[in-house]
Amino acid sequence: MVNRVWQTYRTVLFCRLFANYFALILIPVIVASVLTHFFVVRLIERDAETLNNTIMQHFSEQIDDTFGTLERDMVNMLSAVSVKSFLRSTGNPAELQQRYESIHSLMQQMNKLDSGNLVYKSFLYFANEDLVIDGKTYNGKDEYFREQYPIKDTDVPSYFANFTGKKSMVFAKSHTVYERPPYTRDIVSTHSNIAVMMSYPFNSSSPDVYLVVNLDQDKLRERLGIQEKWVTDTMLVNSDGSVLIANGSSGFRPDSFASMIRTKPEHDLFLNDDGKALTYTKSRFDDSWYYVSMIDLQTLLKPAHTIRMMTVALLCMFIIVGGLVSYVLSRRLYNPIREIKSGLESQHLGDAPGLHNGNEFDMIKRFSRLLISRNKELAQTVDGMFPIVREQFIVKVLLGEYRDSLSIGYYAKEISFPYNPVAAATVLCIEIQYYSPFADQLSETSKSFKLAELKEKIRKLSPAMIWVCQTRSDLLACVLHHEENRLCDPGETANAIKQLLQQPDYKASIGIGKTVHAIAALHQSYNHALSMLKYKSLQPGAEICSEQREWKGRISGDSFLSAHEVNRILNWYKAGDCKSLLQSVFDLLDAGMRSNTNAHQMKNLAIDVLNTWTRAVESERNDFDISVYSEFFAAINRCVTWEEMRQTFRDIHGALFRTIEPSDRKQQFAEILAYIQNHYNEELSIEYFAEQMNMSAGHFSRMFKEEVGEKYVEYIAKYRISKAKQFLLETDLKIDDIAEQIGYWGRNSFIRNFRRYEGITPAKYRMMHQS
């Protein structure tokens, strides 16, 4: 909370500095940016539009002049005396010479007309005669268009349909012309031309002759193009929206042109539905013609966009610089307050109500008062922790961490612990072992409460000088001071404590250590008491373990199996006589009870028996992992009484030597085969089935072969191949799909296994059986 408040004040200071920066610097920058956007950028946009309109106007005038010049040349050609005199000639022999002269005159005039850059070829087409005249020759119509001006077959009908009616500077549809030497079939190249037609007499609906000027469409497109980056296409469009000539392939739509003509004046930009910008200029040559250019707005307005981006970047830079400067200044101005608050924060004062209200000075005063109050509470808490600290001090002395009198005296002084360094003392170790029914029922918290209650009862026996501490979770240590204890004899004190330990839920064993005459030697008495606990028995109830003769007699006897007993256990197992295995353990336990064998010796013997059992099982089976065996050994070590030892061996015997009847085994393998047949397209690991039958993978594999007659892997592979053959013959699935359907990860492994069992690939198998 303190950090959050400090951060809030720092944020307020930062906001104040940044607000001043915003008012003094950022607002003028923002105003300048807005003015730049609305005036300078808009001015650049208008200049770009004006430049585009100027170019379009100049371009349209040039094209109009080109078409005007062509029209004048065509009118002059048809108005020439040669045309009129040729039309007046009747073809009589007397006029034949004059007719030839007129033809040659017309050819010379046609040569002048062909000299234009755009003209590919021009000729005179006589409507009432089988005659065509161009600048080089004159022929009949069929021969001329077959040899001199061969047109693509698909364009012929539409081309000759133009030679009807009155024609006055009419543009025909484009057509393809083959370039080849006359009277040969070797096509050198092709041309895409546009025919411009004019008829004579000019006002006659049934003209005598047509002047045809074929314009090279590629050159016309080149002339029509505008060499500016922002113009993507230029078109010559009729009033109905049909494109006469285009300098690109922009996908112009007539409906867009009609909408533009209807809604926008000349030279204005029009955005169609496709997001493209159009502008048009009306032709001065022909009122039904329009020059339309398609504009790339991004390129046209690139200077304006650049200035806009630079303005935004400059504004962002000012904001970032202002923020950084405000942040640095706020940190420097807040350093003194932060240092004081950091010092108070190290005290971990928490979030008291009203602690962070008001200004910094009031907050520091409240923090100071709270710090004094917390120190008082801390002193009280330390006083309450003295018993725990002193108990830990006793534990360290007993464990031998403090062995010399100098270190013991130093640490005792630190915790104000009173003691006599040369007093006689004896250590009693009390081991608590819960019976198996209660060990699982009681939680660790309940067990801790029971030990705490037991420590208080023991202290009450002699409140003056019995030190009680817990060295392990299941072990209490009592230090008896002989001079000041009313129960001077350790044996009497152990008997008094024994009465407190007669409980139904646990067994208590009291180990009596030897008496020492200095606090620094207490660890020796403690270790001796621990060694006495090895002589505890497996009888229920509380007991005392000391160096009396009766306890020394309990260490006699053998704690391990003889070689003869080990061989006998192995022979019983090989013979399948598992009942004798368990009975032999019961006999050992009965013998131990009769001879009053101690728990340590009996558990060593039991562990030796378990080692022999596991070695026998592992010689033929590998059904258990190391964790299972570890739990078996731990269960023996947890046994408290003879009966628990018997029950533990019953459980271990049932787990190790359980048998499966042949009928049950057949049923289990039948269920496994059914599962494989229903889930053959899934991952079928042998470990999964081995775990289900509580076997190792190797043992399961051997049992599978005995029951089924073939190896586990072979069975699954053959079953999958049989399903694959069914898919190959009954479906049209691809090889990859079939491999996935039957459980293979890729086609390569599937093909390899199919060839292994069938001798051919899946594709050949399908082809052979389907044919």
Task: Put the structure in a nutshell.
This protein is α+β, with helices and mostly antiparallel strands.
What does this structure look like?
The protein has 771 residues and is α+β, with helices and mostly antiparallel strands. It folds into four domains: 73-297, PAS domain (Beta-Lactamase), CATH 3.30.450; 420-554, 2-Layer Sandwich (Alpha-Beta Plaits); 556-656, no CATH class; 662-770, Arc Repressor Mutant, subunit A (Orthogonal Bundle). The strands form three sheets. Strands 1, 2, 3, 4, 5, 6 and 7 form a seven-stranded antiparallel β-sheet that branches. Strands 9-8-12-11-10 form a five-stranded antiparallel β-sheet, sandwiched between helices. Strands 14-15-13-16-17 form a five-stranded mixed β-sheet, with helices on both faces. Helix 2 (81-88) packs antiparallel against helix 3 (96-114), helix 17 (563-575) packs across helix 19 and helix 25 (712-730) packs across helix 28 (762-770). Residues 1-6 have low confidence and may be disordered.
